[in-house]
Structure to design on (220 residues):
């Protein structure tokens, strides 16, 4: 005789799952950041100091987020499964996302025809970037019952993510990365080297490419 656990007994809150996932992502960034820092150090790059700052930031984030996610998961109470909406889609959000994507595609196409220089692969990267918003909009607008179409556009969405971030990470040519981190009243300007910037974008590209391949195989 077997008994089934009550509904929601194995459910985990979204917060604990997101914190743990961010912790694992920080671990990946730490590993790739260490490799990029080593390469810049071997090449006597002036970006080594910034690379070390970013590396320490990701290492500290991983050291905090992983235990925090486990602590939150251990203390949380079982949550009943949430009821999905009747139609399972958001037409307004889908139209907004699709409009943003069409705007990006339209502006990119206009710049192609107005360009006076020789066109290169970088000039066409607006296509996958704008397609991310278009595919996401279709995904949001489709009702739950359209399983095959939702799966197709989900695969297209992850593929567009992988192409966009993959080109930044692995494409030819020089790359410049800059950013800033603000905590309270303190701000830190980040100017990572090309290797570290490519590594971070490469992590996202691989993280998108793996589920994209799985989704295409399942769709077929």
């Amino acid at each position: 005789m077997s008994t089934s656990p009550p509904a929601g007994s194995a459910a985990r809150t979204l917060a604990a799952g997101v914190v743990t996932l961010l912790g694992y992502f920080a671990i990946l960034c730490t590993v790739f950041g260490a490799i990029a820092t080593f390469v810049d150090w071997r090449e006597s790059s002036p970006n080594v100091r910034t690379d070390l700052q970013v590396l320490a930031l990701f290492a500290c984030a991983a050291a905090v987020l992983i235990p925090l996610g486990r602590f939150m998961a251990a203390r949380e109470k079982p949550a009943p499964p949430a009821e999905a909406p009747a139609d399972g889609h958001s037409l307004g959000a889908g139209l907004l996302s699709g409009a943003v994507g069409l705007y990006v595609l339209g502006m990119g196409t206009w710049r192609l025809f107005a360009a006076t220089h020789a066109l290169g692969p970088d000039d066409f990267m607006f296509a996958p970037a704008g397609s991310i918003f278009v595919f996401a909009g279709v995904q949001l607008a489709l009702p739950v019952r359209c399983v095959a179409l939702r799966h197709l556009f989900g695969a297209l969405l992850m593929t567009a993510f992988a192409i966009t971030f993959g080109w930044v990470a692995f494409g030819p040519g020089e790359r410049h990365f800059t950013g800033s981190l603000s905590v309270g009243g303190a701000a830190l300007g980040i100017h990572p080297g090309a290797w570290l910037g490519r590594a971070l974008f490469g992590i996202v590209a691989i993280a998108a490419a793996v589920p994209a391949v799985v989704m295409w195989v399942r769709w077929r």
Confidence is low (pLDDT under 50) at residues 1-12, 183-188. The chain is about 65% helix and 5% strand. Residues 22 and 125 are 27 Å apart (CA to CA). The beta strands are 179-183, 186-190.
